[in-house]
Write a structure and sequence with these properties.
alpha+beta; four-stranded mixed beta sheet; 7 helices; Uridine Diphospho-n-acetylenolpyruvylglucosamine Reductase, domain 1; binds flavin-adenine dinucleotide; binds uridine-diphosphate-2(N-acetylglucosaminyl) butyric acid; Uridine Diphospho-n-acetylenolpyruvylglucosamine Reductase, domain 2; 3 domains; Uridine Diphospho-n-acetylenolpyruvylglucosamine Reductase, domain 3
């Protein structure tokens, strides 16, 4: 296995930030990971596991070891009367897994079509879109503990999934390398078209018989019309999370700002549309140098050309400050800042 020094990460992060890794290795098997980790030079080095680089922002060069996870393989490992259990290597491209499941009529992932990135990162922030989160069909994962070099299994409850959250962003941050994920997918599909835009899109497509293939197609079409394609404009999807406030806080805000957008949650709180807050603060379409706020989706920060990570970070801070000042709401970054 080759270990590269001062390797450029520009093509390996969807923001297209020109940062570099002090050391860089691509790993395709667990043994290769173990081999790198056992090298003396890396015992105490900082480590970053890289998937598709679609949910991180490099604010400086990474002065440690970047491991590009390339573990492949998609297989049906088990089935019972209701479910298929599909195990995928962490380095598989997420959308390729979705396409394969949709084509085979394994139901559950169709609403998560076209999310960039790799399988290994899907549990990291419990990826979600169009009314579904990965926790809804996650069965278990395997991860290598960097400290004791053994493989651990994590069940759904072990992962402590929440909205864009898991145990791997908190108490186990930087401690595990996820090597595979197993999903539990339905034999008899349950269609989730609770997200209004899907139903509208299906109608426009002239769909009369609901299938997971049609839902996947509708989701791809909505996403392509709304979100910038990282191959054309650097970005990492939603830069901030949608903030949660209590119902009392929401009513006070609604009183002052009647058009404010919020969705009721099961716990009685309300999730605010951060994109609305940011747009109302006047940021939509604004740029500072090459760092900008997308003109169609205020929640997405973009690199129009050669922005530095620190400039995008600075823009995000300005946005957070103005949302706090106008609405007294604190935005939290969704993107991992490196
Ligand atoms: P990376 O960016 O490479 O890594 C993300 C984090 O996970 C890093 O901290 C990294 O160290 C860690 N990590 C990655 N792989 C492993 C591993 N194997 N083991 C341990 N740690 C690991 N997200 C959503 O939830 N919903 C969306 O609808 C959505 N839409 C998006 C649209 C666009 C246009 C873009 C650019 C991004 C979008 N995202 C969305 C964010 C992103 O696609 C997801 O978070 C995705 O899961 C990131 O995968 P990745 O492989 O690129 O992770
Ligand atoms: N809105 C505005 N102005 C904007 C953008 C949005 O007013 O510029 C308001 C609109 O009222 C809109 C509402 O915000 O109805 C919600 O917008 P949208 O449906 O586009 O969803 P979102 O909240 O911006 C979230 C996720 C996305 C996910 C979509 C679809 C978060 C942080 N983002 O976006 O996930 O794809 O819903 O489910 O939860 C990601 O995490 O990277 C991501 C793209």
């Amino acid at each position: 296995m080759i270990i590269l020094k001062n390797h450029s990460l520009k093509k390996l992060n969807t923001f297209g930030i020109d940062a570099s890794a002090r050391y860089f290795a691509e790993v395709s098997t667990v043994n290769e990971i173990l081999e790198v980790l056992s090298q003396k030079a890396f015992l105490n080095a900082r480590k970053l596991i890289l998937g598709g680089g679609s949910n991180l922002l490099f604010t400086k060069n990474f002065n440690g070891l970047v491991l590009k996870n390339n573990l492949k393989g998609i297989e049906l490992v088990k089935e019972d009367s209701d479910f298929y259990f599909i195990k995928a290597g962490a380095g598989e491209v997420w959308h390729n897994l979705v396409i394969q499941c949709v084509a085979n009529n394994y139901s559950g992932l169709e609403n998560l079509s076209l999310i960039p990135g790799n399988v290994g990162a899907s549990p990291m922030q419990n990826i979600g879109a169009y009314g579904v989160e990965i926790k809804d069909c996650f069965f278990e994962l395997e991860a290598l503990n960097i400290a004791d070099k053994t493989i651990h299994k994590f069940s759904n409850s072990d992962c402590k999934f929440g909205y864009r959250e898991s145990v791997f962003k908190h108490e186990f941050k930087n401690q595990f390398i996820i090597t595979s994920v197993t999903y539990r997918l339905l034999k008899t599909p349950v269609f989730n078209i609770s997200y209004g835009a899907i139903e509208k899109e299906l109608q426009q497509m002239g769909i009369t018989k609901l299938t997971i293939q049609a839902i996947s197609k509708a989701v791809c079409s909505i996403r392509s019309s709304k979100l910038p394609n990282p191959a054309e404009i650097g970005n990492a999807g939603s830069f901030f999370k949608n903030p949660e406030v209590s119902n009392e806080e929401f009513l006070l805000l609604k009183n002052k700002f009647p058009a404010i957008v919020g969705y009721n949650l099961e716990n009685g709180n309300v999730k605010l549309a951060a994109g609305w807050l940011i747009e109302q603060c006047g940021w939509k379409g604004k740029t500072i140098g090459d760092a900008g706020v997308h003109k169609l989706q205020a929640l997405v920060l973009v690199n129009y050309n050669n922005a530095k990570g620190i400039e995008i970070y600075g823009l995000s801070q300005k946005i957070m400050d103005s949302v706090k000042e106008k609405y007294d709401v604190v935005l939290e970054r969704e993107v991992n800042i490196i």
